[in-house]
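Hi Y.,

Following your request, here is the sequence exactly as I used it, all 794 residues.
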Amino acid sequence: MKDKIKHVMSELSLEEKVALCSGEDFWHLKGIERLGLPKIMVTDGPHGLRKQDADADHLGMFGSVPSTCFPTAVGLASSWDNELVYNLGEKLAEECITEKVSVLLGPGANIKRHPLCGRNFEYFSEDPFLSGKLSASLIKGIQSKGIGTSMKHFVANNQETMRMGIDALVDERTLREIYLKGFEIAVKEAQPWTVMCSYNKLNGTYLSENKKILDDILKKEWGHNGLVMTDWGACNNRVNGLIAGQELEMPGSNGIHDQKVIKAIKEGTLSEKVLDERVSRVVELILKSKETLDKDNSQFDKEEHHAFARKVAADTIVLLQNKDNILPLNKNQTVALIGEFAKIPRYQGSGSSLINPIKLSKAYDAFKEVLGDKLLYAPGYNIKNDVVEDFLVSEAIKIAKKADVVVLMVGLTDLFESEGFDRTHLNIPNNHLHLINEIADVNKNIIIALSNGSPIVMPWKDNVKGIIEQYLGGQASGEALCDIVFGKVNPSGKLAETFPNSLTEFPSNQNFPGLPRQEEYREGLYVGYRYYDSVTTEPLFPFGYGLSYTTFEYSDLVVSKDKNIEVSFIIKNKGKIEGKEIAQVYISLNDSVVYRPEKELKGYRKVSLKAGESKTVKLVIPLTSLEIYNVDGFKLENGKYTVKVGKSSKEIVLKETINVKSSSMVIADNLNTYKNINDSFEPSKADFEILYGREVPAYPNIKPYNINSVFNELKGTLIGKMLHKTITKQFVGMIGEGETNEAILKMMESMVDEMPFRSMVTFSNGAISENRALGLLDLMNKRIFKGIWKIIRG
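Below is the corresponding structure, written out as tokens. Let me know if you'd prefer a different format.
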């Protein structure tokens, strides 16, 4: 491979080198036929293949080829099953091979800093260790078949609000231990062929040109040997991006940025040696892809993939509540299945990851096959709105009175969560909430089946007996839910995120989503369970929590330390049916010279046990995983560490203390506000500045408008308002006739709101020159004559 790359590089002209560093169109990289470099295709994932069925470079939100829609990342993470996720990666790769797709854009490894992030359904966890391990498993599974991945969105892309312009202010330790750590684990263990940099700024610098992150850390410190591509339209300054470590601009700028790069080379502001380093990685990606493209693109087995999707969906379901052992049900009971989700399932998130499924199972059909005439059904609500419709509720009450048990399917609709916008509250739709309350008055045997991509509050929790969290379970979600409800599959999923009682409990809520252009991560390391386990507040459901139809007993903990920490314990299935348990290992150091969360996840294992069976679980925890970032690097602190084995972060069943000696000198941080936290933890700006190690920069002025102003700011002007309306109309037109609805329109409008003005040049395919765009900015800034002159010059 090295010789091939070297040969290609020696044959490339300067213009060809520059051209290779940007996309040909929305989904393809450029090829050079005379050198045997094919034009390769990249396309959206990460839980299914979203390939457009035409070459046009439009959004393609619906016009994509049929593919298997697997559960989204929020569900996959609930499986805590590295092998399952690896196998899913293999299936995704098989579909990519069939469709001649070279790189699947995923997985999403961003941390769930706050439960209202609209794209949380596409991310694994609030914990970087779990996120990193599952990301690595998926990457390895996909790449084992010769298909590349693009781990995203690198980094601190933890909200949709102003995601294209927000400046995430994160202190170095939090950045290293929380927001970079998952990416670091996956890069070192799996070497994704590409990493996708995010739109946002980090501590003042756009990620697309952040040399510290892309070059110093990703490439040099972690040893990433793939390339960095931009998120679509995330390139700010192309020359600075190349210098910083960004190889590939997507989707390309119709040659506008190429000319700037060539000029920079000729003027000496960009070294051709740096350019060669970047281009060689693009060439390597194309050559690796060519090896797979040259193979037979045999068709994958659609039925086999659907069956696997069903298995995955069942393994990701989390049983949150099971009073009086109401579950599993038996087929002799009369069951009222209520909720329009039963016939029109919400099985995936809305946005760029939207899959056109090969087939789609529905809970109603699956339940009907089991129950026959003993199944009663009523929609109960309309998924297209949030309005209580009395006749639908009355119909649902009528069948609930006749039933032995009610299975009530509720959750979040696309109107409530999607890529493009953040949620504004933790509630389910009013018509769902009203329905639960009304049914609870006429039947006490209620099982709630949730379809949602992120946590919700449950004021009705004590009025129902069963709660099943199925998240967004993919195309086989209906069959998988039926498998769990009737006991064909014993639930084994556990939460990979914390469910709060209210928004105010989250310390990140103080600054979410922050000012329009600046977000202070004042909570530091206290993300999710790291906060809840450090205070007395009990969450609605803790991280790592999930029930089973059987019970498990832990015993015989043995902890030894040499070069690593070795943990051994026994798990016994004390019930009468087979089941799977997810054992979690946390480690604490309470007597530390720096602030720390009460404990942190450092290991886990999913174990399958037959009735009455016992197994010994052995885990090896590297001492390096106990290191913290202190002053100028990762260091291991001396002290007595407690190894805690638990069924969840809150339910610790075994623990043992060990002494760890280290030659590292850990410097005290003197962060008393963070060290001595309580339930009302709310750091001030002054507290954060001590943590941040510098003053918080002044809030940037919105005016005068500039090339990075977003349309939500620009639409305060007449020209900006007209442009916003025109672009939104064009985006909606790209989707396809008959496919738009209120949720899609909301997402599109929000995405245009967040779009920086510079994107208009990139996405216009040359229709609007950079000079004319600057002229429009002058007009919006009331520099009339300058603006008109630039527009005339073109």
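Residues 272-293 form the longest helix (22 residues).

Thanks again,
Q.
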